[in-house]
Amino acid sequence: xxxxxxLVEEYGDQIIKNRRYLHAHPELxxxxxxxxxxxxxxxxxxxxxxxxGITGNSTVGFLKGSQPGPSIGLRADFDALGLTETxxxxxxxxxxxxxxxxxxDAHASILMAVAETLAxxxxxxxxxxxxxxxxxxxxxxxxxxxxVKDGIMDHIDYMFAIHVNASAPLGQIDIHDxxxxxxxxxxxxxxRGKGGxxxxxxxxxxxxxxxxxxxxxxxxxxxxxxxxxxxxxxxVSYLHCGVEGVANVIPETVSMGGCVRVLDTDLxxxxxxxxxxxxxxxxxxxxCEVKTTMxxxxxxxxxxASCVSIMQDAAGxxxxxxxxxxxxxxxxxxGYFSEQKPAAVAWFGMGDPTGTHELTPHHNPKFYLYDEKxxxxxLEYMLSVYLKAANTL
Length: 393
Ligand SMILES: [Zn+2]
Ligand SMILES: [Zn+2]
Fold this sequence. Notes:
This protein has 11 helices and 17 strands. Strands 1-2-4-3-5-17-6-16 form an 8-stranded mixed sheet, sandwiched between helices. Strands 8, 10, 11, 13 and 14 form a 5-stranded antiparallel sheet that branches. It has helices at residues 4-11, 14-24, 33-45, 104-120, 143-149, 208-219, 221-224, 265-285, 305-317, 335-338, 371-392; strands at 49-50, 59-64, 67-77, 126-134, 158-169, 172-174, 178-181, 183-192, 196-197, 232-234, 238-241, 249-250, 253-262, 289-296, 301-303, 321-323, 343-351. It has 2 domains: 4-179 and 301-392, Zn peptidases (Aminopeptidase, 3-Layer(aba) Sandwich), CATH 3.40.630.10; 183-296, Alpha-Beta Plaits. The chain is of the alpha+beta class. α6 runs antiparallel to α8 and α9 packs across α11. α4 (104-120) links the parallel β3 and β4 (126-134). It binds zinc ion (2 copies). It comes from Megasphaera hexanoica.
C-alpha cells in the first residue's frame, strides 16, 4: 500500500503557495496565457512531456508508467471570472476586475501537485496518466469541447475531476451516480416588423405582438412538449423593444432570448428545435421577419457508476464523508469528456469548517477557500483516486 499521506507531506506547502500565486494573478476565460505558461513551465521542469496538438491555452501533460495499466485523465480548469474581489487577503487578486471566484486556481494547483508527485514517483504510475489543464470552462463554448476535438479522448480511457466547493465544509464530497448537470442551450430572436405612428397601427406592423405570443408559447414547452417526468426549464431572459416613455411610436424591432436547461442531451435537441419552429411560425403568422440564433452549449454531465464508486471508496478510505447530491440544472463542460468515455466529477467541500470564515457562494466577490488545510487534503484525495483507478480499472 502506498503511503499517500507521506507523499502529501513530502510535497509540503508548495500547493498552497501555488494556489495563492494563481489566485493573485487571475485571467479571464480563453485569455489565460500567463497561467498556461506557468503550467507548461512547471510540467516541463518536472520532466512531464506535453501532448502535441493541443490548441489554445489548454495544456495536457502525460506520464507513462513502467507497468501496463489504463490511460487515466485527471482534469483541472484554470480560468477566472470578471468580478472584483472584496476579500482583504495578502494574496487577493492583483488583476483589477478579474477574480478566481470559482476555485479554478485551486484546481490547477492540486493537479500540478498530483503531476509533480507522480513525476517524482513514477513507480506509482500504471499505464499512462494524463494531466488535463483546461482553458475557458466558465465561458461558452468551454475549453473541454476543443480538447475533445484535439483528440485527447482517443488516448484517455477514464477521466476524473474534482470541483472545489466553497459552500460546503472541508471533509465532505458530493458525487452522484448518473446525470449530475444539465445540457444547456440558448436562443436569440431578432424580430423585425414595421415601425410607425401610434395613430395608424394599420400602416405599421408591431413586432411586440409576435414576441409576446412567443413568450407564452416558449414558456409552455416544458409542460406541453416534454415528458412530465423529464427535467427541463426554458427561460425568457431578455425582451427589448420600443423606447421607454415614447408612447406614440410603434417599434420596428424586438430582440428576445433566453436559455434551455435539461438533464437529457437528446431532449435538449428537440426543445431547441421547437423553440426555433415557434420563432419561425409565429413571426410568419404576424408577417414579421425573424433572425434566429440557436447556441448548443455544454451537454449533460453524466457520471459513470464505476468511476463514481472509485471516487466514493477513495474518499471513505481517507475519512472524507460522501454525500449523494441530486442532479441540478447547473452546467459543467466536463460533460464533453463524460460523453466520450467513463468519467466522474465530485464536488469537494473546501469551506472553513471552524466557522471563522463564512461559507461563500461561488462567483461571489467574497468567495473564500479554506486552502491551508483543504489543498493538502485535496492532494491526498486525488492521489488516492488515481492510485485506486490505476490499480483497479
Ligand atoms: Zn464557476
Ligand atoms: Zn467552476
